[in-house]
Write a structure and sequence with these properties.
Length: about 350
């Protein structure tokens, strides 16, 4: 018999045996129930959430056994926050700006009009103190959050009429959540927050006149081209940010360091993959929207962009004024935007502008 194998199985106390025996101690399986705001098998956001749930099980070699429920399968799309905070499920995947009714500052952890792009936001979260602020805010609700994916810069949305002036926004009924919705409300629109699975029916029925969702890749599969004529690819409301993997804080703190590391690694992996996927697919699906379905592309003119900007600054201040915590988060976010975004404007944005000019990329 191989002596090393005998020692490990016999449990003789040697340094080598301690190393070999450690995995055996961790063999017990921990169940993890994950609920989501996104529809099952929906390209982009839905598949990203499912991929993350599967990856946690894979990385843990089955020692964390995830059970994933898409929107409506266990709880409603917007009920995931309360479900996890209350301990009925262990974790959720969603966008935290859906929960600004809980605290206004959650908006800073998804998307801010004229705010950070996804690379900038992730830099702030991981290396600029954003995660610590997110932890402080979430702890008041019994939650722990990690970034777990994103969409990049989102499109301005689908409209049944052209937006040629700020006046065209008045009286518009539009699906747009978060601070972006507050901006549109200031400009005279009537806004609602709907989960993805309810957008199409509301647009077709006329309950709403316009909607934003994500971008060409995700929007294509909602078939929004059947319900609206004009697609504004440029958007101010959600230039970046990310999805949240929200976990019950008590449950999270009961995990071993190894289990926390596995979940964190899976979230970080998907945080990159989610943005990469939509970046790879948006160009293809924009072409399909135009060439296969006759979608008419439009851009907001500078008069509209100017009023967007004015309203966005007002909304940003109003969110900051909500509370001491909102001011703390908002001040940190805005400072990071100037520092991180300011450098990128001098480097990457300047490069992109010249590249697009030289190679006529549009």
């Amino acid at each position: 018999m191989d002596r090393r194998k005998f020692l490990s199985t016999a449990g003789i106390a040697t340094a080598g045996v301690t190393t070999l025996a450690a995995p055996a101690i961790a063999q017990s399986v921990r169940d993890m129930v994950i609920v989501s705001t996104y529809g099952r098998d929906f390209p982009g956001l839905g598949l990203s959430a499912q991929r993350l749930a599967d990856r946690i099980t894979q990385l843990s070699e089955g020692r964390i056994r995830t059970e994933y429920f898409a929107a409506g399968e266990r709880v409603g799309a917007f009920d995931v926050f309360d479900d996890v905070a209350g301990g009925n499920s262990h974790a959720y995947t969603s966008a935290d700006y859906f929960f600004t009714g809980k605290h206004a500052a959650f908006a800073f952890f998804t998307g801010v009009p004229f705010g950070m792009t996804s690379p900038e936001w992730n830099a702030w979260i991981n290396f600029g103190g954003g995660q610590e602020l997110w932890d402080d805010l979430s702890a008041d609700f019994g939650l722990k959050k990690l970034p777990c994916g994103g969409t990049g810069a989102q499109s301005g949305g689908w409209f049944n009429k052209e937006i040629n002036s700020p006046e065209d926004l008045r009286g518009l009924k539009m699906r747009i959540p978060g601070m972006g919705g507050n901006v549109m409300s200031k400009l005279g629109a009537s806004t609602v927050s709907l989960p993805g699975g309810q957008i199409y029916e509301n647009l077709v029925s006329g309950a709403i006149d316009a909607t934003e969702y994500v971008g060409p890749y995700n929007d294509y599969f909602l078939k929004l081209y059947e319900a609206a004529k004009y697609y504004y690819v440029d958007g101010m409301h959600e230039p970046g940010g990310g999805n949240a993997f929200g976990m019950n804080k008590t449950w999270w703190e009961g995990l071993s360091d190894w289990e926390q590391s596995v979940i964190t690694a899976a979230c970080q992996e998907e945080n990159g993959l989610g943005v990469q996927e939509v970046s790879a697919k948006n160009g293809e699906y924009l072409s399909r929207l135009v060439n296969e379905h006759g979608v008419q592309l439009r851009e907001f003119n500078e008069d509209v962009w100017d009023v967007f900007g004015e309203a966005a600054m007002e909304v940003n201040e109003e969110v900051r004024d909500h509370s001491a915590m909102a001011a703390k988060v908002g001040d940190a976010y805005n400072a990071a935007l100037r520092e991180i975004g300011g450098f990128r404007a001098k480097a990457e944005v300047a490069f992109s502008r010249q590249r697009n000019r030289v190679f006529d990329l549009g």
